[in-house]
Amino acid sequence: MDTVSNDILSQKRETPGRILEIRRDFPILNRVIQDKPLVYLDNGASTQMPRQVMDTITAYHEFHHSNVHRGVHQLSQEATDLYEGAREKVRSFIGAKSTKEIVYTSGTTAAINLVANSYGTANLTKGDKILISNMEHHANIVPWYMIARKTGAEIVVIPIHDDGSLDMDAFVELLDEKVKIVCVNHVSNALGTVNPINEIAVLCREKNIATVVDGAQAIGHFPVDVTDLGVDFYAFSGHKMHGPTGIGILYGREELLESMEPFMGGGDMILSVSFDEISWNELPYKFEAGTPPIAQAIGLGAAIDYLNSLDREFLESYEQQLLEYANEKLSQIPGVRIIGTAEGKISLNSFVINGVHPHDIGTILDGEGVAVRTGQHCAEPVMDRFGIPATTRASMAFYNTFEEIDALADALLKVTELFDVTD
Ligand code: 7TS
Fold first, then answer.
1. What pLDDT score was predicted for residue 422?
2. 359 shares its domain with 298
3. Regions in the chain scoring below 50 on pLDDT
4. Is residue 382, in this structure, part of any structural domain at all?
5. Ligand 1 proximity of 296 Cβ (cutoff 6 Å)
6. Residues paired with 270 in a beta bridge
7. Fewest CB atoms within 10 Å of the CB: 3, 105, 321, 334?
8. Residues 148, 164 share a domain
9. Which residue's CA is the closest to the ligand 1 atom numbered 5?
10. What beta strand segments (E) does 20-160 contain?
11. What pLDDT shows up at residue 38?
12. From atom 4 of ligand 1, which residue's Cα is the shortest distance away?
């Protein structure tokens, strides 16, 4: 075992100064856990916030807090300007044509539930098909299951290859005239696979099939342009792109959102109300009932400003180097098998170790200050596809370092020593 350990330790790589500088924006990365420096490799669950985002949220509470779209007083107008300003930042960040296409939600889950209920209910009848990829998060499965039960539509699974890439040949074959909706993630949270969304959208558009893309794991890793992608709906969460929790976005093509009935009713989403007749507000407010997550939306705007201030091309290529480095290290640890090896995947490694339960791995890693996620990652069908109950997942962000990958590898070696794992 010493030989393996020494081999791994001998291949160190130095983290670029630009990354170390960026790390200073993230106070939480200085935490000490179990007497060890925190190694945060659970970015797939939630990314950390830079100080700039926290400061913006605090300043909002200190100086501008009030309810939006309601008061004529100055504070309400300031809050409304900040809140609507953030919507414009989101629009520009994802290349949408109009802020009418940007609906604030509480997260990806809420965004997909909105589409399933509003669009799904109105556009599905008995015998129709909803295609869902085998690598979806439960957030892009369960709402459709619920709507399928209500409407009599059928869920059909798009299969995936052994490397975790989507089986595009099978997908094309499945696209018959019964298919009304295709649900697929841009990036899989369990495998790291990046799906060919543009190709999927083109095929669906030809057949008038709606595309619902779960962008939760893509948005923090590379630039997304919904117009270039040509999708109908695109959902994501603020907390996976260095913003706060409690805020997410549903992008919807204006024409489709216009045709849809609201999902939730209440204040702000109406133009006029009587007991006989109610008329809906214009887009996007039609879908935003009640007091919205104001501070969170403004925080999301600040996260966008922060990402825009960085050299994202550099960060993207740096994350790929982290992935290569992690692959190299993991391949030298006895008994490790990586689940999801598709070309072009993001910096995320799901893996199993022969004979060791992922929860034991997670607990031992926590003792070393290394935070990873273990379990089925709310993607049970993909675990079933690979015939495993769970994985350990190290998901990286641009602020992670090569030294942190070393710490992960060292901690995993401890696991294999403790459990006496051999290849
Ligand atoms: N879709 C994908 C692909 C996700 O990874 C997640 C969260 C969601 C949807 C749901 O997002 P929410 O913000 O509405 O909760 N994924 C994870 C994960 O991988 N580990 O913890 C949460």
1. 86
2. no
3. 1-3, 9
4. yes
5. no
6. 280
7. 3
8. yes
9. 189
10. 32-33, 36-37, 39-40, 102-105, 129-133, 154-158
11. 98
12. 216
Q: Cβ distance 249 to 102 under 8 Å?
A: yes
User: Which residues, in sequence order, are bridge partners of residue 352?
Assistant: 337
Inside any domain, residue 58:
no
CATH code of the domain covering residue 31: 3.90.1150.10
Which amino acid, one-letter code, is at 139? A
Q: For residue 112, report the distance from its CA to the centre of ligand 1, in Å.
A: 12
Indicate which atom in ligand 1 lies nearest the CA of residue 106.
Answer: 14
Residue 237 belongs to domain spanning = 65-308
What is the tens place of the pLDDT at every residue in 213-240? 999 999 999 999 999 999 999 999 999 9
The three-class DSSP label of residue 65 is: coil
CB atoms within 10 A of CB 80: 18
Question: What does the block give as tokens for 21?
Answer: 């500088």
In this structure, the answer to whether residues 285 and 177 fall within a common structural domain is yes
Can you tell me which atom of ligand 1 is nearest the CA of 237?
13
Please give the pLDDT value at position 2.
Answer: 46
Which atom of ligand 1 is found nearest the CA of 110?
A: 14
My answer on whether 132 and 278 are in the same domain is: yes
* Residue 381 preceded by cis peptide, ω within 30: no
Which two three-digit tokens encode residue 45? Answer: 């669950």
Q: Which of 311, 294, 406, 408 is nearest to 351 (CA)?
A: 408
CA–centroid distance, residue 216 to ligand 1 (Å): 6
The pLDDT of residue 12: 86
Cis peptide preceding 284, ω within 30 of 0: yes
Q: Count of domains in the chain?
A: 2
Q: Which pLDDT belongs to residue 200?
A: 98
CB atoms within 10 A of CB 288: 22
Model pTM greater than 0.70?
yes
- Asked whether the beta carbons of 39 and 407 are under 8 A apart, the reply is yes
Question: Domain with 262 in it: what CATH number?
Answer: 3.40.640.10
Task: Kindly state whether residue 56 falls inside one of the protein's structural domains.
Answer: no
Pairing of strands 210-214, 233-237: parallel
Residue 423 identity = D
Strands (DSSP E) contained in 328-402 are 336-339, 348-353, 370-371, 373-375, 391-395
Does residue 297 share a domain with residue 353?
no
Residue 154 belongs to a domain: yes
The per-residue pLDDT for 121 is 97
Report the alpha-carbon distance of residue 353 to residue 411 in Å, rounded: 13
- Tell me how far apart the alpha carbons of residues 38 and 32 are, in angstroms, rounded to a whole number: 5
> How many other CB atoms are found less than 10 A from the CB of residue 259?
13
189 lines ligand 1 (CB under 6 A): yes
